[in-house]
Design brief:
The relative contact order is 0.08. This protein has a 7-stranded mixed β-sheet. A 6-stranded mixed β-sheet has the order 5-4-3-2-1-16. A 5-stranded parallel β-sheet has the order 20-19-18-21-22, sandwiched between helices. Strand 9, helix 5 and strand 10 form a beta-alpha-beta unit. It is 39% helix and 19% strand. By secondary structure, the chain is of the alpha/beta class.
Length: 637
């Protein structure tokens, strides 16, 4: 047996906090060594933080990371563990995103990322340079490039994040050249459905290339990107470890690399493919690191062969899995909670969190997420981190006031009630005075005045108290401009800005089931609406929210033309007349394309899906455009 213990380390980094990030890695590194870990992995860009975006263009930002990498190596000299850690490197005037291999107190190799994503939320190809297959050189005397590193326990193949996501990545040539343990350092943002995709990719790579594949991921949030941490070890298609997510720390598993050697010998397809490849390709260069370089000898003799915890190699684990519905909702709540918490903690200007409650669904869910974080941060007194406000006007109902008061009482959150009617009358009169004699204040303006008074007051509170003003609007209403610039579109962080309205409502149903909250029940008992005019309901002014969200997905995500959206909706909603569906699609596309100027003025928001409305992230659309291209055209005879 050739037993190797693999540690997957997840740390919560902050961009530019080089010393603090390295300190976090060192704490986990020492814990790994104490656990007998042979090789420990840390995330992509662990020293500099991720995503660095255009900070990488500052040469000093990159150069400053090298001393911390050397410090990490120096302070792990006495540990008999090999470590891989992510770092930015300058080489011949270019910037590279690298996996650094550290052993025996020295940096032994630097492996640059080859696949640089420049899509969705990623912009790496704009500023970074990619590693070139087969190319090697040196950086500060350290081997750099397309490399394998051979230790006494086996040969490792470092790689970085996106290299896993391409079938033409480095895994193929490095495993065919003798790499046994592929070590992928990732900073892969969370998005709904990505966990299953990661699992499938890792299992596929491990089976196709008959290797042991170890993957670790960044934990925490930076700006609007949320990283769920965790990681996986899969040996030749067999799952060996799935590390816990949504936390810092490490998890470890022991594997027998002789099993990988045996399976390669048995698998004629892999052998033939490797032989064919090597007849036309030069093997990847291998660097040897002798065991004598370590100050402390490895304790691999103490490792125990991996056996199933439930006592059977043939029967599945009897522990029942959680329901997919529970997993779906809890993942969203975990992601948004981490996003709020890290944004709050990593911006030292903030001292508390503030939410303007309307008595409606969006602001309620925002408060519940903020409270979920507050419980983690101050379990003895979560309410001390929060402040809620209810600012009624003449159109606010007793139901919404009662709901706001009830939920704050249940959560122990202080609530201030600050009416806005007097300010509304003053602003209404001032607006009328600005108009020409033949102009009048419109009904829409009267609604927007109320929202803007509330937004201004929240900013004033934020400036005076050091409070983080949480914006509460959802993605569906933002998509069609059912929001007020200077009003409910305001805030320092959009918590639900990439959560569809139907998901907001489903989350509240779920939380009501879990908690039995009277406050949630009161909110759900009333139709959703902004209460800026008498008897106002969102679905009556827009369209049914399920239809709106379907339009958003089909038009915004699937990029269907409006007439194609209609055809899909006819199948989805047979109870609605085709003419009605056509009218809703026309309304959606008109509002959607006419609201882009609003999106670009919205605050930074948390990302949990593949589609969102942050212009610099996923969906980049011109503000100025002619909407003729999106008109519904009747089919010709």
């Amino acid at each position: 047996m050739r037993l190797v213990r693999i540690g997957l380390g997840s740390i919560d980094t902050t961009v530019g906090a080089f010393g603090e990030n390295t300190d976090r890695a060192l704490v986990v590194a020492r814990a790994m060594a104490a656990d007998g870990v042979t090789i420990g992995l840390f995330p992509e860009q662990a020293i500099g933080g991720y995503p660095v975006e255009d900070l990488i263009q500052w040469q000093g930002f990159v150069a400053r990371q090298w001393p911390e990498l050397e410090r990490f190596a120096r302070e792990t000299t006495h540990l008999a563990t090999v470590f891989l850690i992510g770092v930015s490197v300058l080489h011949e005037g270019l910037r590279y995103n690298c996996a650094a291999t550290v052993a025996g107190g020295l940096v032994r190799a630097l492996t640059p990322k080859e696949k640089l994503p420049t899509y969705n939320v990623f912009y790496e190809g704009r500023t970074m340079s990619r590693g070139v297959p087969g190319a090697t050189s040196e950086v500060r005397g350290v081997p750099f490039g397309d490399l394998l590193i051979r230790f006494d326990f086996g040969t490792i193949a470092p790689e970085v994040c996106e290299d896993l996501w391409s079938p033409d990545g480095p895994t193929k040539r490095r495993t065919y050249s003798g790499g046994e343990l592929v070590c992928n350092l990732s900073a892969s943002p969370f998005r709904l459905g990505v966990v299953q995709t990661r699992r499938e990719l890792i299992a596929t790579r491990a089976a196709d290339y008959q290797c042991c594949f170890a993957y670790t991921n960044l934990a925490g949030a930076n700006d609007g990107l949320i990283f769920d941490g965790g990681g996986y070890v899969n040996q030749n298609g067999k799952w060996m470890l799935e590390a816990p997510r949504w936390r810092q720390g490490f998890a470890a598993a022991t594997v027998d690399l002789d099993r990988t050697t045996r399976l390669r010998a048995e698998n004629t397809t892999w052998r033939n493919d490797a032989e064919t490849y090597l007849t036309t390709h030069t093997p990847v260069r291998t660097i040897d690191v002798p065991e004598s370089t370590f100050a402390t000898q490895s304790s691999r003799d103490d490792l125990i062969y991996p056996v199933p915890a439930h006592g059977s190699f043939f029967l599945p684990d009897p522990t029942p899995p959680p329901s997919p519905r529970t997993v779906f909702f809890e993942e969203i709540l975990d992601a948004l909670t981490m996003g709020v918490g890290d944004y709050f903690e990593k911006n030292p200007v903030f001292r508390k969190l503030g939410v303007a409650l309307s008595g409606g669904r969006d602001s309620l869910l925002t408060l519940l997420i903020a409270h979920r974080y507050a419980i983690q941060a101050r379990p003895d007194d979560p309410g001390s981190l929060l402040q809620a406000f209810y600012m009624p006007s003449r159109f606010s109902s007793e139901q919404t006031r009662n709901a706001a008061e009830t939920i704050c009482r249940e959560l122990g959150v202080p609530l201030e009630i600050v009416p806005i009617d007097e300010a509304y009358e003053r602003e209404l009169a001032a607006t009328a005075a600005m108009l020409a004699p033949d102009e009048t204040v419109t009904e829409l303006t009267k609604q927007n005045i109320q929202a803007r008074i509330r937004g201004q007051r929240m900013w004033n509170w934020s400036n005076s108290s050091g409070g983080l003003f949480l914006q509460t609007g959802n993605m569906s209403e933002k998509a069609v401009g059912y929001t007020t610039i200077g009003g409910d579109l305001e805030g320092a962080l959009g918590v639900l800005a990439n959560v569809p309205k139907t998901v907001v409502m489903a989350l509240l149903d779920y939380l009501q089931e879990q908690t039995g909250s009277a406050g949630i029940a009161l909110v759900l008992a009333k139709p959703a609406g902004p209460e800026l005019a008498p008897d106002q309901e969102g679905e009556q002014e827009l369209m049914p929210f399920p239809v709106l969200d379907a339009c958003f997905h089909l038009f915004g995500a699937e990029k269907l033309l409006p007439q194609e959206v209609v055809e899909a909706l006819v199948i989805m909603y047979p109870d609605h007349a085709r003419e009605q569906l056509c009218a809703w699609v026309e309304k959606f596309t008109r509002l959607f394309l006419g609201s882009i100027y609003k999106w670009v003025q919205a605050p930074i928001s948390l990302h949990i899906g593949n589609l969102d409305l942050d212009r610099e992230r996923a969906l980049q659309l011109p503000v100025v455009q002619n909407r003729e291209w999106a008109a519904i055209r009747e089919p010709r005879d």
